[in-house]
Amino acid sequence: MRLQCFSRPTQAKRRVTMSDPYVEAWERSIKDPNGFWGDAAEAIHWYKRWDKVLDDSNPPFYRWFVGGELNTCYNALDRHVEGGRADQAAMIYDSPVTDTIKTYTYRQLRDEVALFAGALADRGVVKGDRVLIYMPMIPEAVIAMLACARIGAIHSVVFGGFASNELATRINDAKPKVIVSASCGIEVKRVIPYKPLLDGAIRMSNTDAQPQSCIIYQRPMETAPLTPGRDVDWKEVVAAAKPADCVPVAATDPLYILYTSGTTGLPKGVVRDNGGHAVALNWSMKAIYNVDAGDVYWAASDVGWVVGHSYIVYAPLLRGCTTILFEGKPVGTPDAGVFWRVIGQHKVRTMFTAPTALRAIKREDPRAELMQKYDLSNFYALFLAGERLDPDTLKWAQKALKVPVIDHWWQTETGWAICANCLGLHAYPVKEGSATKPAPGWNLQVVDPNNQPLPAGQIGALVVKLPLPPGALVTLYNNDQGLIKSYLEEFPGYYKTADAGFIDEDGYVFVMGRTDDIINVAGHRLSTGAMEEVLSDHPDVAECAVLGVEDDLKGQVPVGFVVLKAGVTRPHEEIVNELIQMVRDRIGPVASFKKATVVKRLPKTRSGKILRGTIQKIADNKDYKIPATIDDPAILDEIKAALVTIGYAQGRR
Ligand code: COA
Ligand code: AMP
């Protein structure tokens, strides 16, 4: 097959052939969203058909499948049990950290979910109630999510690597009736007790937001004492429960809230609806990943992140695939061959992970020798996202795996890929550094600060013309104005991705980096603003800046710069250690905040704006111009010297 490059009709030069299924799908999705998504919705089971596919009567708030009623859990489980997949594996739990492999058929998973849904109902959870899930990568986390969907409750999963304080902010916002947690998680070298973190978070949270009860799954490696009157044991409540049936919900009812870092310490509660989400995710499995019912699909992420929500839990199950729930790391559990072992052993067809995971493997096994031990003949494609895919990692993976290695770009807010090489529609040649083309449904543009389109090749703000396709965020929890302020105000008529980039002459999209203070650390999205808020709380700190500097393994890591208050004479090392501990305690170990330095002053413009971009360039050994607006250029030498003391700005590392 001769592969050609076709561009979508952007400002870029057009070379369109109507026989390309990708081009046809993209154009139809934009010109006729009602027809396009209406057709896709036929693959979903509805209790009541929708009155309208796209309700655009109240911009900038758009709704999909208005008037329709469905149940996401029914579509993910019961439908397949009734449709002949009852004995097919729905989920394989592969946990090298506990030496466990356990398979759940669709029937078994449906039955366990129905029982836990009954247990939630016994604790008073009804449609519309929030249930917060703070769990490691164990089957009970997936069961709890689907059980919420079954009875119309809204789940909010919080990643296990977040500290009590972060958990408390989410409890305050979501006001969960019940929290579901486990006694512990397991990291490479240690067991992490979850219960003290949970107890701390509940203590810190507002009284009116605290849960009526907590259901705790006790793991054998560390059991947790239960708080009488509030905590109950998972196994006991399930033993006493009766299975609950699926409750029909409106297509526009919320399925879940997922908090993500914003530009302040307060995370944003991204709300996903039921109808649009089910339609888009089910459709994406074939169109983007080229996966069919019965295939084995593995997203090596965590259910605490959007990738885990969309592609460990909902999309593969909606499609009737077998999903893998992996409790381990790419290295150290036990070695850098574990990904290949899982692919071989479970006959994985398509895998999805973050580039950082491959960099970790490449560092330990540069020639991919461990891969040779496994039969990867079923493996069809590797998809990567979460951060920019660097060319070295792309080439390494292509050479070692000999399958398509596909970069695709998306965000917690979007729920699925904005740009991808849609293998189920048309496989395009891969261009290094590009996430290929906008997926159907996404009318992506590159604009200047005045919202004017930029020509091909020119970097600007990546924005998406409204309406966003189904499956994207519908609002922020209890905060419609927040949606407008954060995403819709700056470029009227468009969704601001807060990523910068360009589209080339062939219509390929290149995502260059964030335009705000968000950084990506090992594929985890974090706010440097939130870290600055923590550092500012230290009694000796007068001012501070945190920025992301390049890291060979994690892509970026945060580095802090602090100016001390006049008269502070304590050893700097002591203060820095306290700052590192504060970030770990208040945000969590996942922040990977391990380096900070004391400086006499911070470089600023004459109007007082800290020159973060310049500091970043110095740290990353990049060329930089001394900004014309800087109040004192000599400060840059001081910053460089400070960076050298902590291992940066030393020429090529
Ligand atoms: N619960 C508790 N602690 C956690 C945690 C969890 N669920 N996840 C991570 N942590 C801790 C880690 O133990 C580590 O603690 P430490 O500072 O005491 O060592 C810290 O948070 C940082 O974790 P991480 O960034 O994951 O670094 P790592 O060195 O342990 O592992 C990688 C590095 C690259 C192997 C790992 O980050 C990885 O697999 N990344 C892939 C990310 C991913 O899938 N992202 C989703 C988007 S697709
Ligand atoms: P998250 O919400 O955690 O999924 O993080 C979203 C952010 O990660 C995006 O706004 C991008 O900055 C970055 N990102 C995700 N995927 C890619 C990609 N394929 N290429 C470049 N950046 C990416």
UniProtKB/TrEMBL annotation:
Which Pfam families would you find in this protein's record?
ACAS_N (PF16177), AMP-binding (PF00501), AMP-binding_C (PF13193)
PROSITE patterns recorded? AMP_BINDING
Q: What is this protein called?
A: Propionyl-CoA synthetase
GO CC terms in record: intracellular organelle lumen
User: Organism, per UniProt?
Assistant: Desulfoglaeba alkanexedens ALDC
Residue ranges occupied by any AMP-binding enzyme C-terminal domain in the UniProt entry: 531-609
**Record-annotated AMP-dependent synthetase/ligase domain positions:** 85-465
- Family according to the record: Belongs to the ATP-dependent AMP-binding enzyme family.
Q: Which GO terms describe its molecular function?
A: propionate-CoA ligase activity
Q: Where is the Acetyl-coenzyme A synthetase N-terminal domain?
A: 22-76
